[in-house]
Design brief:
The chain has eleven helices and 15 strands. The protein is α/β, with parallel strands linked by helices. It folds into three domains: 19-83, no CATH class; 95-226, Rossmann fold (3-Layer(aba) Sandwich); 235-394, no CATH class. Residues 95-226 form the Saccharopine dehydrogenase NADP binding domain.
Length: 401
């Protein structure tokens, strides 16, 4: 911190203090000038210096000319801010894919081969044999040599193993669901270790409970816990943000339409295939849907304000030109929950007008829609009772992977 009384529009060369952090990677150091006088609260200036060193450094003196946009008639103070995109303490791995031997984990490894080039990454799970098996399968199909990929043994029922895993890397990609049952221990371990956490959860109860219980701890540690990074709900959430960025005006409302085309990807079964973890998440998510109201009252405290014009609910079953005149039903996934949490963040922290949002799923055939309504009603009824959930999980012969 340096105080400069009566700073002129063009500040002189300033010698900044030494920064010594032997265990931190610096990409660049940002010096932000923040006026301390009440009359200059609108004046904010900054300068930054990029660093070519990739590992521990000593920053002795940084020299800057800083031109102010307005005259400053008060002292200003310097605050050093280390921008750490990947700049946590030195660790031997950048990324660990946890739950790698499962359905989601396998496809994450395929993506990792393409996206993690140049980074040090490993796969993790509770069974070394299963990890070796999935690695050989991916290696055979991708044609990539994965023999140097490290295997990390960690179990959601062993908190110490999770902490040790998280402490070795900068980011954990958590593929172990259902997250209602297995997500929290990984989130907790990552926060304790100061490690960022990413998952593909589509479970609103889990995501909102993690925010309620761990937001302040994560904030204090400088850790990001990012959920819904799969089909649920990147297209809806980032699509809404992108639309707002490209829209010439103020976006009042967004409606999303997911096209459902019933097909059988499995010729052996002749029916639709669903991953067991997704099926289990849907069962317990619907069974405990009534938890959301109480959870949200604790998390948010109050509702978002109502803005006009209000986005009206469409009929349960309808057709619309916006979806090529297909039959539409409300989409029961997590898209709306995720989008509205983002909108609340923008409203609370950036004072932006929240965008209203509704999500729908569309079908080309009325017969398909009627079938979906009937099956959904039976499904919802069965999830209300323990015996019904057991039947859905164990007895009903729905092809699952």
């Amino acid at each position: 911190r340096h105080d400069i009384p009566d700073a002129a529009p063009l500040l002189p060369i300033i010698n900044l203090p030494t920064i010594h952090c032997p265990h931190v990677r610096f990409h660049r150091v940002l010096y932000r000038i923040r006026p301390t006088g009440s009359s200059t609260t609108q004046s904010h200036f900054r300068a930054e210096r990029s660093l070519s060193t990739a590992h521990s450094v000593n920053i002795n003196t940084c020299l800057f000319f800083i031109r102010c946009q307005n005259q400053v008639h008060a002292s200003v103070s310097f605050r050093e801010i280390i921008l750490c995109t990947m700049a946590t303490e030195q660790r031997d791995l950048d990324v660990i894919i946890f739950g790698a031997s499962g359905f989601t984990g396998k496809y994450t490894i395929y993506e990792g081969i393409k996206l993690l080039d140049g980074l040090k990454w490993a796969i993790a799970g509770r069974s070394r044999d299963k990890l070796n098996k999935i690695l050989k399968e991916v290696e055979a199909k991708s044609g990539k040599d994965l023999s140097d990929t490290e295997l990390v043994i960690a179990d959601v029922k062993d908190a110490d193993s999770l902490r040790k895993m998280a402490a070795r890397c900068r980011i954990v990609i958590n593929c172990c669901g259902p997250y209602r049952f297995y997500g929290e221990p990984v989130v907790k371990a990552c926060i304790e270790a100061g490690t960022h956490h990413v998952d593909v959860s589509g479970e609103p109860q889990y995501m909102e409970r993690m925010q309620l219980e761990y937001h302040e701890q994560a904030k204090e540690k400088g850790v990001y816990v990012v959920s819904a990074c799969g089909f649920d709900s990147i297209p809806a959430d980032l699509g809404t943000v992108f639309l707002e960025q490209q829209f010439d005006g103020t976006v009042n409302s967004v409606e999303t339409f997911l096209e459902a085309t019933p097909k059988s990807p499995d010729a052996a079964t002749g029916g639709a295939v669903i991953h067991y973890g997704t099926w289990e998440s849907a069962i317990y998510g619907l069974a405990h849907a009534n938890e959301l109201r109480g959870l949200r009252s604790k998390l948010f405290g109050s509702r978002l304000p109502n803005f006009q014009p209000r986005l009206k609910d469409r009929p349960l079953l309808h057709r619309t030109k916006f979806a090529d005149n297909r039959w539409c039903l409300p989409f029961p996934g997590s898209d709306r929950s995720v989008v509205m949490r983002s909108q609340r963040y923008f409203y609370d922290n950036e004072k932006k007008r929240p965008i209203q949002m509704k999500a729908y799923v569309t079908f080309s055939s009325l017969i398909h829609v009627i079938g979906v309504i009937i099956v959904s009603a039976i499904f919802a009824l069965m999830t209300r009772y323990k015996i019904g959930r057991q039947l859905l999980l164990k007895v009903i012969g729905i092809p699952m992977t």
